[in-house]
């Protein structure tokens, strides 16, 4: 009987298809019509560059206002996402499979030779489908890579808000629940506030759009980054005042390092003479910043992100490993990514990168790694 119930829950329902369609449809329309700063992306190998309209924050606020109205008018329940979690997960997974296959087929057919759309095909189906064929595929004028990451980050917040509503309905809301949701909401809102920084990240400038990114953005980010919220629905944790204070401190330090490092690099790329921590920047070979956070470790931004991930898990206490799956995943991903980025940078910057590595020997955590 239980197996039957699980199987039934695994078949995408019409309501979850409708929810997903409305959500992605809203984002497409909002991204197109709402105002936002237009930011030039990195210069591609053929000298061209894309432009991104960074209106994620206004799209998010508008969506929250629409949803708030919907809840107030009782057109829908605030717990709808939490109630349909597995159905929505499955529907989104099937959608990302479908999209990645379409992207693969469309990429193979493309004759365009520009850096954004030139097909990069190895002939190995699994490899090409997984890593993608084109760098910046578009659909009806929408840059899909930028669109999917926005959908994933916003989806994470929507899931969390629904879980928070469910916690209140079921009477499980307490300090742990509030801290977890507060930290994540700040992190995601901050992401959209600084959305333009996304345009110079590895995913946008270097990764092709295949199943790995589509699944990562649409399924992995919203459904697994919220794992602590799902866990707290079923498990009650009473934090001591000291634990709560240590938790807040981890979040604050993580945030400062994460945002500070990403901001310093972004500002440096735009204006290589801009002061870092009140002093002129130290620059190697005219290209690489080696002061501020970038003089402490070559990927201090990853350290900040890892601390933030820990601060999202600490509200769950230490009785289970499940809430720590997110920081564990992030640790593996960022170490792998840091290795790939090092390889890319050493090819791109050659002796300048070598000099940087000598000056800043630590990769992520000073004196440890
Ligand atoms: P970075 O933002 O660190 O970008 C790496 C690129 O920055 C390099 O390829 C190089 O590109 C440039 N660069 C490296 N060192 C220097 C330097 N010293 N001076 C100037 N430019 C430099 O990496 P990511 O895009 O991977 O990460 C961005 C953020 O996103 C991080 O904070 C990370 O933690 C977060 N993230 C979070 C994930 C999650 O799942 N939560 C997943 C992935 C990332 P160029 O060729 O332009 O010089």
Structure explained in plain terms:
- Helices cover 63% and strands 4% of the residues.
- It is mainly alpha-helical and 369 residues long.
- The chain has a two-stranded antiparallel sheet with strand order 1-2. It has a two-stranded antiparallel ribbon with strand order 3-4.
- A hairpin with a 2-residue loop joins strand 3 and strand 4 (142-143).
- The radius of gyration is 21 Å and the shape is globular.
- The mean pLDDT is 91.
- The site of NADPH dihydro-nicotinamide-adenine-dinucleotide phosphate has 22 residues, from helix 12, strand 6, helix 13 and helix 14.
What layout of secondary structure does this protein have?
Blueprint: H1 2-10, H2 14-33, E1 37-40, E2 51-54, H3 56-72, H4 80-83, H5 85-109, H6 125-131, E3 138-139, E4 142-143, H7 144-170, H8 175-193, H9 202-206, H10 211-224, H11 227-234, H12 241-270, E5 283-284, E6 288-289, H13 300-313, H14 325-349, H15 351-359
Antiparallel strand pairs: 1-2, 3-4, 5-6
Helix pairs in contact: 2-5, 5-10, 7-8, 7-10, 7-11, 8-11, 8-12, 8-13, 12-13, 13-14, 14-15
The protein binds NADPH dihydro-nicotinamide-adenine-dinucleotide phosphate.
């Amino acid at each position: 009987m239980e197996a039957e119930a699980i199987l039934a829950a695994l078949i995408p329902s019409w309501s979850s298809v409708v929810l997903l369609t409305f959500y992605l449809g809203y984002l497409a329309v909002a991204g197109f019509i709402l105002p936002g700063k237009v930011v030039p992306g990195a210069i591609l190998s053929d000298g061209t560059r894309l432009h991104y309209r960074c209106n994620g924050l206004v799209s998010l606020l508008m969506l929250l206002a629409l949803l708030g109205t919907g809840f107030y008018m009782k057109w829908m329940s605030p717990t709808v996402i939490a109630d349909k979690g597995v159905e929505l997960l499955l529907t989104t997974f099937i959608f990302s499979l479908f999209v990645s296959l379409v992207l693969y087929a469309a990429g193979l057919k493309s004759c365009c030779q520009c850096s954004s759309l030139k097909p990069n095909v190895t002939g190995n189906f699994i490899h090409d489908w997984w890593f993608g064929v084109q760098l910046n595929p578009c659909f009806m004028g929408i840059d899909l890579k930028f669109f999917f990451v926005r959908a994933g980050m916003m989806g994470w917040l929507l899931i969390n808000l629904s879980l928070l509503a469910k916690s209140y309905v079921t009477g499980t809301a307490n300090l742990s629940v509030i801290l977890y949701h507060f930290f994540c909401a700040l992190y995601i809102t901050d992401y959209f506030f600084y959305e333009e920084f996304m345009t110079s990240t590895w995913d946008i400038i270097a990764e092709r759009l295949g199943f790995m990114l589509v699944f990562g953005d649409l399924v992995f980010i919203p459904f697994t980054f919220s794992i602590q919220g799902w866990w707290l629905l079923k498990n009650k944790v009473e934090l001591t005042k000291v634990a709560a204070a240590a938790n807040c401190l981890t979040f604050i330090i993580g945030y400062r390092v994460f945002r500070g490092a990403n901001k310093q690099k972004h500002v440096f790329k735009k204006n290589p003479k801009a002061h870092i921590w009140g002093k002129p920047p130290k620059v190697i070979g005219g290209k690489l910043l080696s002061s501020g956070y970038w003089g402490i470790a070559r990927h201090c931004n990853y350290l900040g992100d890892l601390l933030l991930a820990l601060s999202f898990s600490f509200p769950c206490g230490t009785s289970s490993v499940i809430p720590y799956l997110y920081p564990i995943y992030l640790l593996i991903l960022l170490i792998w990514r840091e290795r790939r980025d090092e390889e890319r940078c050493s090819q791109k910057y050659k002796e300048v990168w070598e000099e940087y590595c000598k000056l800043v020997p630590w990769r992520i955590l000073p004196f440890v790694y």
